[in-house]
Amino acid sequence: MDSKFHYGQEVMVFDRKGKYVSRGKVMGIHRCNPTVYDIQPAREESLAKRLCGMSETQLRPVGKPVLAYERRENSPMHIMDEA
Questions:
Q1: How far, in Å, are 66, 72, 82 from residue 75 at the CA level?
Q2: Is there a domain that residue 36 lies in?
Q3: Which domain holds residue 36?
Q4: CA angle at 77 for the pair 83 and 70, rounded to the nearest 5°
Q5: Nearest one of 26, 25, 35 to 57, comparing CA atoms
Q6: 28-59 pLDDT per residue, tens
Q7: Is residue 77 part of a domain?
Q8: pTM of the prediction?
Q9: Distance between CA atoms of residues 83 and 80, nearest Å
Q10: Phi/psi at 8 (nearest 5 deg)?
């Protein structure tokens, strides 16, 4: 069984009605049918605040921001193919 999310991935958590709850990281994956996840909310150090048993439908991945000062690897571009 391949899970949609992996450990340490940042996600947004929604309730069953689709309303935003919090943002956090995946800290536990329970590979039962269906797969459920434990999410540690951002800026919370207490394990008591952990959201347990969240389904894949309640999670959305958060993309990594592209920072202006990060170097990106660019592949060579062919400007003039016929010279």
A1: 17, 10, 19
A2: yes
A3: 10-61
A4: 155
A5: 35
A6: 999 888 899 999 999 888 888 999 999 999 99
A7: no
A8: 0.70
A9: 6
A10: 85, -5
